[in-house]
Design goal:
By secondary structure, the chain is an all-alpha fold. The protein folds into 2 domains: 10-99, Orthogonal Bundle (Helix Hairpins), CATH 1.10.287; 105-171, no CATH class. It is 52% helix and 0% strand. It is built from 5 helices and no strands. The chain has helices spanning 10-25, 34-56, 62-87, 91-102, 121-133. Helix 1 packs across helix 3 and helix 2 (34-56) runs antiparallel to helix 3.
Length: 172
């Protein structure tokens, strides 16, 4: 079993999956790239099944169905890492690039494109670094307890608005 001495990043996951799949299923060039996609599809079905049964309150306890959902999410990521390996994609780069675009969007402010800021990526990173340095301004909050009426555009700490208002910017 592969042990990781640090937090498991997408890069480490992808490297581990590469070793594991080669040991279990052979050389990458001997495998079809669509096989992991079929696995992703199967696991998404399992995730949907667990969610549906939890919603219906049947075929398992809430705890059992939650574990099934978590297992499906993990399996989806593993299959995606395998797919990325077979295609020569760097999963870490893909996630970082995609997240840098997605996090700029605010669909409540702009329902057409989600884009509400003209800030550059460097400006956003600088602001986020400043916010991290000022940890006294950030409160712990459960993101699932966020009232809908909180306006993310009031935030002066997080670029594009702080969805959870877990900062003191509204008091400034």
């Amino acid at each position: 079993m592969i042990e990781f001495e640090e937090t498991l990043s997408f890069e480490l996951l992808q490297d581990g999956v590469k070793i594991w799949t080669r040991q279990n299923f052979g050389k990458p060039e001997e495998r079809a790239t669509h096989q992991p996609l079929l696995g992703v599809s199967e696991e998404v079905g399992e995730l949907c099944h667990a969610h549906l049964k939890a919603e219906q309150g049947i075929r398992g306890t809430p705890e059992e169905l939650e574990e099934k959902a978590k297992d499906a999410v993990g399996d989806i990521l593993i299959y995606l890492a395998d797919y990325c390996n077979l295609r020569g994609f760097n999963m870490q780069e893909i996630i970082e690039q995609t997240w840098s675009e997605v996090r700029k969007r605010n669909w409540k402010e702009n329902s057409e494109s989600g884009v509400v800021t003209d800030q550059t990526e460097d400006d956003m990173i600088a602001e986020m670094n400043e916010a991290e340095a000022d940890s006294a301004s950030v409160k712990d909050i459960d993101v699932y307890d966020i009232p809908d009426e909180w306006d993310p555009s009031n935030c002066k700490i997080y670029p594009g608005g702080c969805w959870c208002q877990a900062c003191s910017c509204e008091d400034e």
